[in-house]
């Protein structure tokens, strides 16, 4: 979903918004789908680290187009390209919806790296249920949140929309979930990474796909992305 420059609402703004050594040649029989590592840029990568084609998605856990890609495109990407060792895929959280995204991101990054993609996939699959609740935040609470800290806002919204219960039901201890939501340094890092993404790739909405270092304009789904990936693999 394209929303222009990222902005955190409710009083806070974004600035402008053990793995084994792989073989030299990728093998179709290698377990690249289970090769999952955190990257220095704050994302999590699946696949052959030496893959010829490197795909990055800047995505939002509350973005409908991102959810659609996760459900419809990612399975084909994994089966046809990542499993072969020819393509690696990295997901980097990007808070396009500001405060609404903070809780899901903090909680999604709180789980062990091996659980990152299963939790992300589950959040995307249940996105409509989580953010589509019909009741509204009470007026008095909205007023209170106007002067609350970013972490307090993230914690409340994560609870209100069910994201805290969501990760706890999947094995994350409640105490750890609350600690991640209360960690101001994690929000500072998220802001810095969003700013870096804006500067490097002019990310202003989600999903934004970066293929071998180049952001792909007007590419929001698998139908548009797959020919680009196929061509890159064939070069």
UniProtKB/TrEMBL annotation:
Keywords: Signal. The keyword Zinc does not apply. Residues 41-226 form the Thioredoxin-like fold domain. SUPFAM superfamilies: Thioredoxin-like. Residues 1-20 form the signal peptide. It comes from the Bacteria. InterPro entries: Thioredoxin-like_fold (IPR012336), Thioredoxin-like_sf (IPR036249). It holds the Pfam family Thioredoxin_4. This is Thioredoxin-like fold domain-containing protein. It comes from Sphingomonas glacialis.
